[in-house]
Write a structure and sequence with these properties.
The chain is α/β, with parallel strands linked by helices and 215 residues long. The chain has one domain: Rossmann fold. Helix content is 35%, strand content 11%. The protein has eight helices and five strands. It has a five-stranded parallel beta sheet with strand order 2-1-3-4-5, sandwiched between helices. The protein is globular, with a radius of gyration of 17 Å. The chain starts with a strand and ends in a 6-residue tail after the last helix.
Amino acid sequence: MAYRIFISHVWRVQNTYYWGLIRLLGAAKRFSFVDLSIPKFRPLDGSYLDVRDDIRRALRTADVVLTINTPVITNSDSVQDELTEAEKLGLPIIAISPPKRYGAMRESQFGAVQRARRAQWTTKDIVDAIREAARGRTRRQQTADLDQQAYEPADAVADVVELSQIEVASVLGDDEPPIIPETSSQLTPAETTPSPRAMLSRDFMPLLSRGSLGT
């Protein structure tokens, strides 16, 4: 059984948290999934309202919705819209905590996140939460053809997008051993990625200030 997963998050051209989550899911044994959160119709710099109806059609085909439990992500108007719609559809929502290695981060106070199932940043915890959330649910009737909706689901593999060594180190599972990065002299400027806390401040706050983009 392939779980149909919708990941509600703030889009950036390079979203390290998002791809880190895909990496954790791809590392799971005897677990397959279809990522509904990467449609062809979703422009990275367009208006959320332009694709809101398409996003909602994607949600109606999902088994479970995942989001990262941080205020910076879940304060996005579009993410809140997606999570509110997921609750209306009766879809289970799983709020995943960021990696513990960067210390405690504030949790989202958004109602849908507060009511969601929780999972830590490990493959086992996330996969167990997905299986538990989907258990006993009747698979929704697939009334829409995803190809006709112009979706482009990501393959369920760990290396959908190749992350640099430092990016991988920043989103390792809480149960994975740390990676000792190469010396700075061996890294190119593109590989010198800051911590997720810094990335949230640098990458996401400008989005939020001008009207955030969701999935």
